[in-house]
Amino acid sequence: MENDTLQKLWKTQHHNLAKDDPSAIILRAKKQRNGQYFSILIMSITVSILVVYAFIYGFKNWNTFNLGLTLMIGSLTFRIMLEFYSLFRKEIHLISMDHNAYHQYLKKYFKIRLLINYIITPICLLTYSIGFVLLLPYFKSYFSTAFYTYLLVSGFLSIIGVIIIVAKSIIKEMVFLKQLNEK
User: Fold this and answer.
1) Which of 7, 17, 105, 141 is the most exposed place for a label (fewest CB within 10 A)?
2) For residues 92 and 109, what is the distance between their CA atoms, to the nearest angstrom?
3) pLDDT digits (tens, 9 = 90+) for 54-83
């Protein structure tokens, strides 16, 4: 994606969105895209750790421990694929649109993102949490009380942290959608 080319193209067009500078749209889009890359990175690291752990310790015989790991890995993998699809779909459309069409596309895109954040993400988070809870009895029997307590506290704090990050993301995307609708 060539930002300079896009800026030149949009600056030469006559559009009725005087408040919406092409460089401001590109900057917002880059910031949002970078946030998606960061989310993908964090989720990918988590999946990698879970997969390595699963193959070393988990998949020796099938039980609820394996089910828990599978739910955690599956929910994160689905969310990663969804983020990649969302990210690259937007980039493909960006190159081929003029300013007004891209502005309309962004409105539609962020409405879909809100759907993802309000419905799909909570389902993935719930599935991940169920998987984590299924692991707890095994952690309790295999690890010391202190380490089990650490896993319990850090696991639930991580889930709360993800909820906070998702909530902030939803708020940012709602603000951006509101700004797009005002223009």
Assistant:
1) 141
2) 13
3) 888 767 777 888 899 899 999 989 989 988
User: How far, in Å, CA of 132 to CA of 144, rounded?
Assistant: 18
Whether the Cβ atoms of residue 76 and residue 124 lie closer than 8 Å to each other: yes
Nearest to 37 by CA among 102, 85, 83: 83
For residues 49 and 53, give the distance between their C-alpha atoms in angstroms, rounded to a whole number. Answer: 6
For residue 123, which phi and psi values (nearest 5 degrees)? -65, -45
| Cα distances (angstroms) measured from residue 97 to each of 17, 107, 123 | 15, 14, 33
- Are 67 and 131 spatial neighbours (Cβ–Cβ below 8 Å)? yes
Widest CA span in the chain: 68
Read off the pTM.
0.69
Q: Which residues contact 64 (CB under 8 A, 6 or more apart)?
A: 134, 137, 138
